[in-house]
Write a structure and sequence with these properties.
By secondary structure, this protein is mostly helical. 48% of the residues lie in helices and 5% in strands. β1 and β2 form a beta hairpin.
Length: 126
């Protein structure tokens, strides 16, 4: 039997991805149809119609083997592995931030910290 990936280990993974994309694209919220898809948002807060936190269904492992794989799927492990796509995303973000502040991307860490401190003090009024 072929080894399963973490994507194979979750129920409704593709449906959740499509629902999230639809909600983001439409700037709306997930549907609340009578049929349960496991995608419904549960609202918490002072009142259902008021301001509160929206929590979406979690990824549920199919079995014990999958639960073991999913348990290893953490941000710490992701950053320790540092896949190429994550490294490129951080580089792009760094370039964007440097451009937004009109800073030289080749500056040293010490120069960067000096600029950040100066900016922080300026905004704090000090």
């Amino acid at each position: 039997m072929a080894e399963r990936t973490t994507a194979d280990c979750t129920t409704g993974f593709q449906a959740r991805r499509e629902e999230a994309k639809s909600a983001i694209d439409g700037l709306g919220s997930p549907s609340y149809s009578g049929e349960s898809t496991g995608l419904e948002a549960r609202r918490t807060g002072p009142s259902y119609g008021g301001i509160g936190t929206v929590r979406y269904a979690r990824t549920v492992p199919r079995d014990a083997e999958c639960a073991k794989k999913l348990k290893k799927r953490t941000l710490t492990n992701l950053y320790n592995e540092r896949p190429t796509w994550l490294d490129l995303a951080h580089r792009k973000l760094d370039e964007t931030v440097f451009a937004a502040y009109n800073w030289d991307p080749g500056m040293s860490d010490e120069q960067l910290l000096e600029k950040l401190l100066a900016l922080n003090l300026e905004r704090a009024g000090g």
